[in-house]
Each structure stands twice: as C-alpha cells, then as structure tokens.
C-alpha cells in the first residue's frame, strides 16, 4: 500500500461506514436501539440519528484535512529544513575530501540517499496537502496533479481549466481537489482507462467539476450484492459537505464514466 493510500484508507473507510449507517437510518432499515422505539417516534428518532451521523462524517472529513495540513507544515518546515542543512554539510565535507577517494565516494552515496529522502519528503508533503492549492489556487493544483498523475500512471490526462479559479467558499477547493484525485485514481485502477479529461467551469447553476474517462464504465445496475465503493461514498460526502451534489454516470455511448460535481452559487 502506498503512503497516499495508507493515509486515505482509514478516514475514507470511517466516513463510508458512517454514511452507510446514516442512509440505513433514513431508509428505515436501522436495527438495534432504533427498532425498539415506539412506532410513533421511530421516524423522528431515526432521522435525528441520521443527521447526527451525517454531521459526524463531515466533521471527520474536515478534521482529517486539518490534521493533514498540520503534518504537512511540520514536515516541510521542520524535516525539510533539517535535510537541507545536512545536504549543505555533506557538500562542505565533499569539497574538502576530494583527495581521499574512499571517503569522497561514501559522501557521494550519502548525498544520493539524502536526495531521494528529500524527494520522498516533498512527495509526502504534497500528498498530505498540495502546496500549490494554497498558493496558486484550485486550477493550478488540478493542472499540477493531472500532469503528475499522467506521468506516474502513463495515462494521458487532458485538463480544461480556467486561468483564474472561480470564487469558492472555505473548504470547497480542497474538497473538489480530493474528489478529482479520487476519480482519477478510480479511472486508472478500476476502469482501465487509457484517456481521461478533467474540466472546471462556471455555469449558470454554479461551479462544475467533471472527470471523464474512456474506461470500461461503472455498473449502474449493480444490485444489493454489489460491493460498496468506499471512494464513491467519500466523494459524495465531500460534495455534500460543501453544499454540492455529485453524480456518476456512463459516458457517451455507454462507454467510460462521467463523475460530475455541481457546486451551486445561486439559490
């Protein structure tokens, strides 16, 4: 399991579990304590518990992102500066031990290991909290992630993004970024896509984010025996947490999958 999945799995699973429980309560399928309530109070009790669980799921998402941001800052400011200082010391020693090949060779290897550690730290910081999102905005962050994703997975990703990021409420940029991140991962891992297109645009109804792939498509007719997609539940909860809606449908001609988020900016 990659570091990214290691960080994401527990939170996504917890959010999905809570979301499923809330859905069951809303549909009147809850058991246990709810089932023992008087019939006339069942609906109100189930609804209240469902709302509490939904609120908890959204709180977990927000708290998770805040913790990731805190860890990213600590790694960048603390470990990053320490690794830079070590690199400068190694360079200083290497310059003064050029006439001792054995020691100089070991220093060269040490610098190579250090360089890979610096790169690993940079990637971890980026996966925890993409710095470009805070400095340059959502469009730049999506473009950067699309390029990085395409290089790592050998899957072309076309990005249709505005030069300037539309005005978004607090929490919306990271939520939309995570939804796009999850959709790209699903397209490469499960859909066997060979081409992906992401777009961000402003329409009359609001801000629209789309991720479209040409893969095998999603089974929209899956019955109750189909496994629950934790990633899909997490994406839906992230969209709902910022006042948006997420839909997943087959692409044109029944080919591929279209993940669409609409974040309404008008009543």
Q: Unreliable segments (pLDDT under 50, ≥5 consecutive)? A: 29-38, 223-227
**H and E order:** HHHHHEHEEHEE
- The overall pLDDT, averaged over residues, is 79
Q: What is CATH's topology name of the largest domain?
A: Heat Shock Protein 90
CATH superfamily assignment of the largest domain? Histidine kinase-like ATPase, C-terminal domain
Structural class: alpha+beta
Share of helix among residues?
55-70%
**Integer tally of domains:** 2
Q: Provide the gyration radius in Å.
A: 23 Å
List how many beta strands DSSP finds: 5
| Main sheet: strand order | 1-2-3-5-4
Largest sheet: 5 strands, mixed
Comma- or semicolon-separated keywords:
267 residues, alpha+beta, Heat Shock Protein 90, 2 domains, 7 helices
What's the arrangement of secondary structure elements?
Blueprint: H1 3-26, H2 39-96, H3 101-128, H4 131-135, H5 138-153, E1 157-160, H6 172-189, E2 196-202, E3 206-213, H7 230-241, E4 244-250, E5 257-264
Helix pairs in contact: 1-2, 1-7, 2-3, 5-6, 6-7
